[in-house]
Fold this protein.
Amino acid sequence: MTWLIVTREVREFYRDGRFLFGAGLVAVLFITAFLVGYEQRQNVFSEREVAQQLDYDDWINQPERHPHDAAHQGMHVFKPIPPLSFVDPGITNYVGSTQWLKAHRQTEVKFRPAQDATGLQRFGSLTPAWVIQVLGPLLIIVLGFNSFSGEREQGTLRQLISLGVPSWKLLRGKALALFLGAFLLIAPLLLFSVWAVSGDDLAGSRHDTLIRSGFLVLGYLVYLGIFIFVTLAVSALTATSRISLIVLLAFWIIGTTLAPRALVDVARMVYPIPNQAEFNTQLNQELQREYAEAWQEHFGTDKRWGSDVPLSRWGEALRVDDYAGYDAIDRHFGALWDRYEDQRRLQEFFGLLFPMLSIRSYSMAMSATDFTHHRDFATSAEDHRRLIQDLISSNLTQHADGHGERHFDYKVGKEFWSKVPRFEYAAPAAFFALQGSLNSLGVLLASLLISIAFAFWSSRNLI
């Protein structure tokens, strides 16, 4: 009986042209977004790889100079493009792509691609993730808004019930028919990902990318499943198809357009963050206190780089200065990043009412384009900066300090520069992303269970 209902529903989709028109339009947008995103990713990946190598070559081939002068020049490291960024670019365009590794303190990741974008960027970008998150629910609403209300208007619903068809079987059959449409919408995501990864030398770990793709498809099926059961529930409760369509479109507009933007502002009010000037002021003030305490403890003076400390100890002073600031840097950047994480979790919680908030976070995490992955890159870059500083301060302590007042006459060349390794960053494995997404996935699953219960409750009295 269930498969008879599914067959009948699918046949109706094709007869009235809703499925062919809606799915065809979504497919065209999806393929266009995929190809454009894939090409952009290839170009950006190549550009950053070349830039990374050129910057490192400049470091290796710099002339003989004092090591601390080179530390102030530092080097730049570039954030790699994740393999699945063409599916969901996440916050990639709104956070920096380059970090400057220089002496004394950590810097922010700079040069956000959105800074060079046109005004159209405010309306969002066409990506496969956007197509599924926004247009996927709309397609389901178009297909299912009259599933029960339409049959009630035509009188066929009363006939089905009189023939002894249980309401729960009718609900199950209609839900399976809509799930078939949802799967046809999601299947290209997995197929395109497999194709892109299998033929892409830039994809990194293919196994990891395929795992991420599988979990991504799972999350989107849950997301669309929520809208399937909500659509059926509303259709069962409303007297006419017109009312059903109006209610569902209102829910879609609020859930995919208004609520995500409004709750971003709510999260900012609940968990405010300092602006860049305030952050730098607070960090610099604490750094000065930490420096003063460290210099007083090691050298008997709180005046940095003054005549009280002879040049014969400036290599040692550089190491003391660096280590004195590490805790303050970690505290301030850690607190700032934790606030961003708090804002994300608050938005995910409201995914119980507006599922897009949860799937958006989950999708970015599985595509390695969320803030957690960005934070991991920034932390790795800072670790590399500290490695450079340790190598330089150790070299100065061993060699330059022995020159006494001629400390700054000491110079090193390519042999020392080459001891600094090239920065190599690999994104965490898929299960790191999954672990960080348990909250959003849990909210999605809870929303699905609630929507299923709502649909079964609504279908108890169909006549």
Q: What stands out?
A: The two ends are 20 Å apart (CA to CA). The first strand starts at residue 75 and ends at 78.
